[in-house]
Amino acid sequence: DSDESKFAIFERTNARGLDLNIGDLVKNYIFSYQDSSINEKWDEIVSNAQGNLPKMLKYSWISQNGHVMQSKLYKRIKHFIAKPENSINDYVTELLKFSKFYSMFYNASESSTKEWLNEQKIELISIQYNVQEITRVIQALKLFRVTQIIPLLYSIFIHFKKSNKKKKNNLIALLQTFEKYH
Which strand (E) or helix (H) includes residue 125? Predict the structure, then answer.
């Protein structure tokens, strides 16, 4: 009779049948809140995931909350959203921000890098050189198929935005170190 019942039936049915991926479960849980502002954001999140929503959800979680096994991710997300100090809209907004970085990483072009940096209001000294170098490092990491570094890179960029000028000069050197290591 109610939408809540529909979502509960979905979860029970899933528990008895074939496993759905984490993306399906999170989508069901998010949409159970019936917040119309989420629809557009969710479509963009799925698009930015580049066909790998479960991996993106895991990396997003890791970038802000630390390591979690894929099998426990849904329960952690559900528990996180259910806390009184958190809201579904805040979670989806943060996920959207991460998804834009995830998409930028997989596109790895100067234009996507520059667009993402500008959107995040991350100011770099000598912007053109830095955008080229950031893009080159990301392209190299992609070439080596290094993706587990995505949550770390995202966290570094977010904290970098808040740092002082002296630390800003070290960003490129840090990224180059990650590239050399891998």
Answer: none
